[in-house]
Protein: BED-type domain-containing protein
Organism: Zingiber officinale
Amino acid sequence: MADSAPAANSAIQVSLDSNEIPEQIRDKGDSVNNNATGDDNLSPKLKKQKRSHVWSEIIEVEDPKGDKYKCKHCQLFLAKMKIGTTTHLKRHLDHCAKHLESKKKLEDKLKQQQLLLGFESVDTTMPLLLHDGKFCMERMKEAAASWILMHEHPFTLLEEEGFNMFCRRGMPEWTRISRTTGKKSCFAIYEAEKKKLHSLLKNVTKISLTTDLWKSKNQKIEYMVITGHWIDSSWKLNKRVLNFFNIPPPRGGPQISDTLLKCARTWEIENKIYTVSVDNASANDAAIKYMKEDFLKINNNLICEGKLFHVRCCAHILNLIAQDGLDEIKDIIHVIRQSVDFIRRTDARLIQFAEIVKQLKLQERKLVDDCKTRWNSTYERLRTTIAFKEVFPRFKDREPNYVHCPTKSDWEKLLKVFSVLKVFYQATKIISGSEYPITNLFLNEVYRVKLILYEKSCDEEEFIRKMVQKMKEKFDKYWGECNLLMVVGSVLDPRCKMRLLEFTFPKLYNTFESESNTREVQKHLYAIYKEYAVATIENLQGSKSNSESQSSNSSTQNIREQATFSSGRSDSFSRVIDKYRASLAPATVEMLMCGGDWCRKRHGVTKKTKVEDGRNEDTECRLKLG
């Protein structure tokens, strides 16, 4: 027996002088020691790691009658086996309907993402899991051309050494793209996107157009941009630049009308145009008159016999009225522009100005630049500058060359004018919105403008009364007559209905005009309803989608009528083609402007607004306060 003992234990050889004790004996020894001392907490029992894939779908729950498992999908309780097997859990998941449905959705999403790999827009919330790993220079050319179009870069950027060095660092297979090749790629994208947009417009029943004029910086060439607005079957507001035409002189009403009709025929939307919005130039009035006559000849069913066809740009009217107010303080505006430019000319002056701001413990920290042709930009600059009215006199004491310091009376005059212009600024921000419908907000904003003009017409200051009198004349010129389309949009707002007219019309018009305009609005509401009902019945009889017709016919009540209008005076242009495109042929300019808009919509890119000096419109100078 003694000789057999070593043989029995030969499977485990232990050296008492060694610290390398096998795990099997160490565990047993610890168990014996713990039992001997009566302390079970000195060496807790290690849990076995869960490696099965079922644990991502099954959770363990505690139960008074014994622990159980629970399915995350169908919430079914499953028994917990003492031996720890997961076979019954796998069997349940293979037959769980909700688990199988969730698994199929994930597989479909992954499959769809594989098809969209490349430069197409994909779901950014889901990472790119698969890629073939192959470099394709043709797809890189397409991506570079889309980049040029979206961000309005010059073609020569593709030939710059720094850009090509950057690309070769990450992609050794990259080859240099010439500006000629880049231009051809941009034209290819333009033609492809144009076909897509043409197919999209075939499913649109009604569309509204807006126009704007551009000029070339280095050439005596003027362009007209035409933008289309419509609501799709998903009730989403859509906006696309349709054409960017060169208009040769003379640029009168017939020429503008011919250009609009050319656009309509190009996109095959002659019988779909609902309204056309233009600014208040006399040539535009003549153009709309010619268009209306031509559309009636080609059997275009204009709503209410064309009485709602012509829409005047509301933001442009507000701009014209506000410009009369700024004219009263144009000398003060000039002094403030000179002052800010003088301070920003050198860092030393800017630091000195910032030190005074710090001493006075002012909260404002920026001097804002402005665009002279946009009154709201000038208003924003003056508003931020007013916060530093106590700083300018102190800066004058420290800077002997500073001679354009506004006086105390200038600031007082400016503040009084601002009390009037503030209402115009707020109304312009609301009416100029592009991502939400504004037709139903029009009447309320016009009422607020009328109210402030009436209130300030009795102001104690003579220059305020004189300023308001000029603004009232301009207001009555454009809004003395009832704007039927905008009023209809306000009435169709379920929060307002006809009660809004009962409240605002007596304050906007005299008693006779108020009652007459109310009857006219009711008459057109019935006419719109009748035409809508007839169109709906025809669509149902023709087995067409009622929802599509409903959304398209409602576009005129919901669409933003003003999109890209000149924000300056009627005889000036705020839209200027930059220096990179000013020397290009008109066909190339149209490709860049339209293709850029279509690519930005496709990839969800927002365009930054630029001003004439090449800086962003919201350019500002942050004061360096230590």
